[in-house]
Amino acid sequence: MKTQIIGVLFALISFSCFGQYDYAPSKKNPYGKPNPEAPEQIKDYEPMIGTCNCKSYRKGSDGEWGEPVDMTWTFQYILNGMGVQDFTLKQDGAHSGSIRQYDVDSARWNVHYYSSSSTGAPLSHWIGNLEKDKIILYRTQQSPQGYDGYSRLTFHNFSDKGYSWIGEWIDVGNTVAFPFWKIECKRE
């Protein structure tokens, strides 16, 4: 009888504890699921959930796109389906990722970027939203020449086959855009 009671108590404790992780990545859902209690914007990143094989291109000092770097880019729901995390594994060893949370009060995404090459500074932070068929994020940033402007990151060209991403510096008036990084991703 004592063993049965302990078994029932363990089952009740396990059920109540693990129920709080119903939307986290698991064997059944390796990339997690959106929590129905999350803001509806949690699904903005749905086209990217999963792992893609990608080609990353950086613009060189000569203004030309460099040779592509192979990488994988994985997006998953975290915080029991209340946030989104992404991470990259790059052939050149420069790994990175972001934690993405939607702030209902400000009606925008807050994106905190981390990288294996910059571990000591506070995390870089972008803000933005889904605009029509693109996710556009901004961060105040001066150009290398000292002009005021923004870093603009855009996810676009979503399909069942993958998506595209571009990083650009834009001026305050949004009249000059200088692309500095682009990534093309294909589903595994």
Describe the protein in words:
With 188 residues, this protein is mainly β. It has a single domain, classed as Lipocalin (Beta Barrel), CATH 2.40.128. The chain is built from one helix and ten strands; from the N terminus they run H-E-E-E-E-E-E-E-E-E-E. It has one helix spanning 2-18; strands at 50-58, 69-78, 83-90, 96-103, 108-115, 124-131, 134-140, 149-159, 162-171, 177-187. The chain has a ten-stranded antiparallel beta barrel with strand order 1-2-3-4-5-6-7-8-9-10.
Q: Which descriptor suits the 3D outline?
A: globular
Total helices: the number is: 1
Strand content: over 45%
The Rg value, from CA coordinates, equals 20 Å
- Mean pLDDT level: 89
Report the CATH topology name.
Answer: Lipocalin
Order of helices and strands: HEEEEEEEEEE
Per CATH, the architecture is Beta Barrel
Helix share, percent: under 10%
Using the coordinates above, name the CATH class. Answer: Mainly Beta
**How do the strands of the widest beta sheet line up side by side?**
1-2-3-4-5-6-7-8-9-10
* Biggest sheet descriptor: 10 strands, antiparallel, barrel
Distance between the termini: 52 Å
Structural class: mainly beta
Q: How many domains?
A: 1
User: Low-confidence segments, ≥5 residues, pLDDT <50?
Assistant: 1-17
CATH superfamily: Calycin beta-barrel core domain
Number of strands: 10
